[in-house]
């Protein structure tokens, strides 16, 4: 069994990006610029955005954080989105989710210029990704594809079960793995909470991507010997022995599943670190006009 170390891979990718940014600046180009809009003071969102800003500093990007209180109106938020769309210095920006209930997340995402949608949530980018056109791919699926590639995990001709059908992870993951290319060319089944024969499907899978948001959902008796298991779960569960009072749990019961695997991602330290790094990758692509000429 080999651990897929997202921390190490993330650090490698960031070093490569930092070197490229140095070359861009040395050649007279401008620093790539990522902006983030943060509404309210949700603990998870605060730490995630702080991680993004720190990553920008690491690789030599310029970053901007725009804060609003929970009572910001939808109109005010959309006005700020429009302002960033039209700011030539901003290469990409994200609106950190979740948003307060009085704001329509889909409407906000749809108002982001697809050329600056480095989160990859805009319907135009999702559609381009689905038909194999250049697109900004959402961060977690892109991070998983990077890990599969860097660990030389064979996907061609393999049976893959993706557990979870969210628009952020499950659906894009199933599309990317079934498309032509490397990683790709897999036969993919999308399973979810209503799938009747889930255990049987998983036992046939060469690769399992668990993205259902239920701690310890995938157990040892659901995984065949030699399988590759990618755990996307990041649920905070109460813990009396940690300073924060909680710890992250994955969707995979690690101690049961890991001994059967050829490769497995831990939680934390697997897919998570690659998510922010993927956002940095997308911002660099935007600055270089790689997706939209």
Structure in words:
The chain is α/β, with parallel strands linked by helices and 293 residues long. The chain folds into two domains: 30-121, Leucine Dehydrogenase, chain A, domain 1 (Rossmann fold, 3-Layer(aba) Sandwich); 139-273, Rossmann fold. Helix content is 38%, strand content 17%. It is built from ten helices and eleven strands. The strands form three sheets. It has a six-stranded parallel beta sheet. The protein has a three-stranded parallel beta sheet with strand order 3-2-4, sandwiched between helices. The protein has a two-stranded antiparallel ribbon with strand order 9-10. Strand 9 (235-238) and strand 10 form a beta hairpin. Helix 2 crosses helix 10 and helix 6 crosses helix 7 (170-178). The longest helix is centred in the N-terminal third of the chain and has 21 residues, at 6-26. The protein is globular, with a radius of gyration of 19 Å. It starts with a strand and ends in a 6-residue tail after the last helix.
The main β sheet shows up as: 6 strands, parallel
Could you tell me the CATH topology label of the largest domain: Rossmann fold
Low-confidence residue ranges: none
Element order, helices and strands? EHEHEHEHHHEHEHEEEEHEH
Strand order within the widest beta sheet: 1-11-8-7-5-6
Going by CATH, what is the homologous superfamily of the largest domain?
A: NAD(P)-binding Rossmann-like Domain
CATH C-level class of the largest domain is Alpha Beta
The computed structural class is alpha/beta
Strand content: 15-25%
CATH architecture name of the largest domain = 3-Layer(aba) Sandwich
**Computed Rg:** 19 Å
Helix content: 25-40%
Gap from first CA to last CA: 43 Å
Question: What shape does the CA trace take?
Answer: globular
Instruction: Tell me the domain tally.
Output: 2
Number of helices: 10
Mean pLDDT: 95
Q: Can you count the beta strands?
A: 11
């Amino acid at each position: 069994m080999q651990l897929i170390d997202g921390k190490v891979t993330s650090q490698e990718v960031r070093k490569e990006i930092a070197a490229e940014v140095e070359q861009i600046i040395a050649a007279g180009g401008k620093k790539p610029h990522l902006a983030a809009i943060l509404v309210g003071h949700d603990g998870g969102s605060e730490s995630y955005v702080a991680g993004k800003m720190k990553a920008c500093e690491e690789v030599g990007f310029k970053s901007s954080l725009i804060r609003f209180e929970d009572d910001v109106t939808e109109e005010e938020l959309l006005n700020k989105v429009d302002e960033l769309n039209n700011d030539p210095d901003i290469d990409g920006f994200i609106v950190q989710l979740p948003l307060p209930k009085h704001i329509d997340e889909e409407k906000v995402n749809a108002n982001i210029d697809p050329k600056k949608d480095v989160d990859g949530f805009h319907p135009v980018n999702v559609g381009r990704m689905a038909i194999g056109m250049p697109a900004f791919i959402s961060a977690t699926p892109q991070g998983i594809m990077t890990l599969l590639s860097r660990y030389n995990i064979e996907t061609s001709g393999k049976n893959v079960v993706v557990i979870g059908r969210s628009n952020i992870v499950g659906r894009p993951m199933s599309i990317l793995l079934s498309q032509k290319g490397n990683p790709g060319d897999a036969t993919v089944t999308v399973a979810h909470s209503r799938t009747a024969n889930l255990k049987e499907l998983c036992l046939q899978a060469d690769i399992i991507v668990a993205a259902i948001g239920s701690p310890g959902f995938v157990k040892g008796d659901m995984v065949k010997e030699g399988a590759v298991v990618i755990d996307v779960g990041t649920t905070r569960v109460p813990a009396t022995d940690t300073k924060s009072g909680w710890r992250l749990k994955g969707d995979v019961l690690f101690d049961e599943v890991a001994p059967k695997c050829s490769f497995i991602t831990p939680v934390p330290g697997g897919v998570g670190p690659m998510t922010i790094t993927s956002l940095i990758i997308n911002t660099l692509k935007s600055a270089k006009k790689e997706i939209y000429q």
